[in-house]
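Summary for the steering committee. One of the milestones for this cycle was to obtain a three-dimensional model of the protein with nicotinamide-adenine-dinucleotide bound, which we needed before selecting residues for the alanine scan. The sequence and ligand used are listed below.
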Amino acid sequence: MATVATSTYSNFINGEWVPSRAAKTFDDRNPANSDELVGTFPASTAEDISSAIQAAKDAFPKWRLTPAPKRAEILYRTAEILIERKEEFARDMTREMGKVLAETRGDVQEAIDMTYLMAGEGRRLFGETTPSELPNKFAMAVRVPVGVAGLITPWNFPMAIPSWKAMPALVCGNTAVLKPAEDTPLSTYHLTQALSEAGLPAGVLNVVFGDGPGAGAPILKNRDVSLVSFTGSTEVGRIVSEACAPTFKKCHLEMGGKNIIIVMDDANLPLAIDGAVWGGFGTTGQRCTAASRIAVQEKVYREFVDKFVARAKTLRVGDGLDPATEMGPCINEQQLKTVMNYVEIGVAEGAKLAAGGHRLEKGALAKGWFHEPTVFVDCNPRMRICQEEIFGPVVSIIPFESFDDALEIANGVQYGLSASIYTRNVNNAFRAQRDLQTGIVYVNAPTIGAEVHLPFGGIKNTGNGHRESGVAALDFYSDWKTLYVDYSDRLQRAQIDNSE
Ligand code: NAD
């Protein structure tokens, strides 16, 4: 395996690390200190993407016929490499993405968990057998690979999300081209290196770095790509969906969220406050499942607000590599500006700013994209800050009277990823699970924190019906093939010869 000694990185095409043919690069910088260059990566163009897709296409016939347990052995070895290098990978991830070390360790761990899970699937990949309606006839359905997969990922889970896509794609027998987000290429580079070291054959996974229009869009147009899995914003998801339509690619979209925590009068309040602080400000609010809305019932509203605001004000913001830091920076200057813009919008809409509201740029924070943990209270659920995804450390608190009001507020947004309710009333807990319009519902836990063996994804403008993770992912990364064997030695006509 080729190693790279400097901080100039290459694409991974057909088992080789190669620069972009256009010889253009972009910088990967530390959002906690933009003077720090983490690495330089190829700004790939359509020509590079085309080579990567060709490599994946050429590798497909052999990989498709490699027994799934053999494919899985490579994944087991990959997981072991990730375990060995977890700390190094987590530190690099904090340097390029900004989230605190405990969280980047969690991100690498999620990749490990997903890799083991999908390695296990190599000896399962269960299909269906079922009795035929006719005598002396055998019927079953098996999973077959789809072909070349195009995988496009965001920056907020830079190793976990690429692994959510790559591992099921590979174990199912597909080959792939992966285009990670331009803000966090190094973590995907590490994941790719682990797969390569583990013995993944040339061309089975190809990785191209670059921005969306330059390196992502050509994947969507290419006729040799049969399937696309995208995670990112709803705006880009719509572009992806439209670009996949003309060639009828199987297309999976995981997009934005506007998630809510509902706190009922009967909740364990200290637990709800802990959960809301973690759900709202964990990963600097830059999780698709972040709790950016908190709806609190009247009787406990004041107490919740006072305590939550006090906690937000004391969160330590800084470099994620410092063990004392509780919240890191925004990913880049643009995202920081978006956050600052939403603070202005919230104030203009008449929401009460109870904590934060400003960029942090004094002393050690001067070179980073830091923003105060920010809390708006007494919000109206129709305000833009309660409707639109901000993707930053901004939480809007909304008072409500009844359980039905809470449901209406929760469901009154375009997104449908994750929702949570804190209550000790079992009836309300079950009604919430039934009636909240989201792909994920938590009871007495915040909106964030997925486990890899369960389906992950959203409804409405968050998702298009497919799911990451668990067995559900296999349904996306494989096609069903239905097989019938008639051993009766005579013509048997389904629905005709057995209905007399
Ligand atoms: P983004 O939509 O800007 O970019 C996502 C990926 O798409 C990147 O790799 C980008 O380069 C690529 N891209 C951009 N334009 C493209 C184009 N025209 N053609 C092809 N590819 C293109 O999102 P982001 O800023 O990286 O991530 C944040 C967003 O991701 C948030 O909206 C967040 O909610 C969402 N997200 C969703 C989930 C989920 O599972 N639902 C998980 C994580 C993040």
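Key point for the committee: The pocket of nicotinamide-adenine-dinucleotide is lined by residues 152-156, 179, 181-182, 211-213, 216-217, 220, 231-233, 236, 239-240, 254-257, 288, 389, 391, 417, 458, 462 (CB under 6 Å).
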